[in-house]
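Section 5: illustrative case.
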């Protein structure tokens, strides 16, 4: 399978993975369409792929390709039309004192420690308790630190310079892509909401049009928060519609 219209995209080939357990819908199996070779998926190529519903995990660009399910819907925010709710405005004001530092995507032991704590609190089933920490570190690096595109890690610290949150972000031709965010779950805070609001503002500063939020699934509680950000566009049958 090849994609038309753009010459760099025409050089890609695509394969469908074997079925695996869906991480969002119980008792469902999922499959993905993978773009290969991954060395060709640079910033320009990925900018085209993300417009067609692909996402990045490490150096792999993929899109859901399930035989009997189309629940995963790509969503993006047109940042210049975004209107924050009152609760979002309060969250932005509350966390505005956090100091944001934009860094190159790379391994940092302090980031990794925060990531482990976040996973243990929010997604305990995603960590294998018997896995040695060095293997967990390798998975973390492959997932979030390795990239063939323009990727950054934004760290957020409080007044005491304590690390509170890290957001992994890709910069594509027409917007930002929110890859992953992890934060201090012990605080009574709205870090996840603030991260998206911060990325919206950064996209505006860069003169970009969109913030890509990945996939939304109507029946997945994990995805429900994405609908709180409006207006947004969904990729329906290859067309972005508001």
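Designed sequence:
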């Amino acid at each position: 399978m090849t994609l038309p219209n753009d010459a760099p995209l025409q050089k890609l080939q695509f394969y469908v993975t074997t079925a695996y357990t869906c991480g969002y819908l119980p008792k469902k199996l999922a499959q993905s369409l993978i773009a290969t070779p991954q060395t060709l998926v640079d910033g320009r190529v990925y900018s085209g792929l993300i417009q067609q519903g692909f996402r990045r995990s490490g150096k792999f660009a993929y899109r859901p390709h399930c035989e009997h399910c189309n629940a995963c819907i790509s969503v993006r925010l047109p940042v210049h039309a975004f209107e924050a709710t009152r609760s979002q405005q309060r969250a932005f004001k509350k966390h505005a004192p956090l100091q944001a530092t934009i860094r190159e995507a790379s391994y940092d032991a302090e980031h990794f420690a925060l990531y482990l704590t976040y996973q243990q609190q929010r997604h305990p089933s995603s960590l294998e308790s018997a896995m040695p920490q060095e293997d967990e570190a390798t998975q973390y690096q492959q997932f979030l630190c390795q990239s063939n595109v323009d990727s950054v890690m934004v760290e957020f610290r409080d007044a005491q310079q304590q690390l509170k949150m890290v957001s992994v972000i890709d910069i594509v031709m027409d917007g930002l892509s929110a890859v992953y965010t992890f934060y201090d779950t012990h605080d009574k805070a709205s870090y996840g909401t603030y991260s998206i609001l911060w990325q919206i503002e950064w996209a505006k500063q860069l003169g970009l049009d969109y913030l890509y939020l990945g996939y939304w699934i109507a029946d997945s509680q994990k995805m429900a928060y994405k609908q709180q950000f409006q207006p947004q566009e969904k990729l329906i049958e290859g067309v972005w519609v508001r």
